[in-house]
Amino acid sequence: MSTHRARRSRRLPLLAVVAAAGVAAPSVAAANTPATADTTRPAAVQAPDDYYQDATGKSGPELKAALHTIISEQTKLSYDEVWDALKSTDEDPDNTSNVILLYSGRSQAKDANGGDPDDWNREHVWAKSHGDFGTATGPGTDLHHLRPANVKVNSVRGNKDFDNGGEEVPDAAGNRTDDDSFEPRDQVKGDIARMILYMAVRYDGDDGFPDLEPNDEVDNGSAPHIGRLSVLKEWSAEDPPDDFEKNRNEVIYDSFQHNRNPFIDHPEWVGSIWK
User: Fold this and answer.
1) Angle, CA of 43, 44 and 45, to the nearest 5°
2) Cα–Cα distance for residue pair 79/137, rounded to 1 Å
3) pTM, two decimal places
4) What does DSSP say about strands 120-124 and 106-109: parallel, antiparallel, or unpaired?
5) Which parts of the sequence are annotated with region: Disordered (predicted)?
6) How high is the pLDDT of residue 46?
7) What distance in Å separates the CA atoms of residue 199 and residue 126, rounded to the nearest whole number?
8) What is the DSSP code (8-state) at residue 53?
9) Alpha-carbon dihedral of residues 212, 244, 240, 119, nearest 10 degrees?
10) DSSP state, 252?
11) How is residue 218 annotated by DSSP?
12) pLDDT for 14
């Protein structure tokens, strides 16, 4: 297990937090019901005061290098362990038996995971063929870019780069795709951008894995690049981190990898690094 910085106390289960706040516990809805990834959660706690201290006052390449060092201190999961982790990181706060699916926004039973068309599976937001890292422990299992997604919708996205435009994706309203790109629904565009940019900072070519870098192209194939950077920057600005995304960052930090996505804590750093 990797060493990591001192952390705050462990996160209370969602229902306990809600009860402590004097709010009635959410009712349990039927499985596989429509929902959005913006469902209200208790506000997430910010990073410990000293977590980003080595990045303070930096910008551009110096900031990127400092953040790389900070977030590389992490505990790594196996690909099998990712299944259970996602059931915590992406739990539906209105129905704790379910997870929220990234692209469709659907709330689906946690145990409905697998390879059947109506199941949910593990979506690599930074497509694993872009750099050919597969499901190797490291980039292939990093929770900061792995999300539950409907099997059919995940297949439509495939390894396409991100860009605007295309035809609407069946069973996933608000998502669009064409031959070489995929546009997610508005509610998670910023999430997608910040996951991609996290990967570009975390995997910098110094740990046996490719140097992942976004570019402003599509159809990147197996190169360790993904685009379009200009569009991802727009998405990050237009869709700032919401409570669901902040809480997810906190759960990954507190309970699993013990590192954070800096662009959720400090979305202003996107423009500081990628000018």
Assistant:
1) 120
2) 7
3) 0.85
4) unpaired
5) 154-185
6) 79
7) 7
8) G
9) 50
10) I
11) S
12) 38
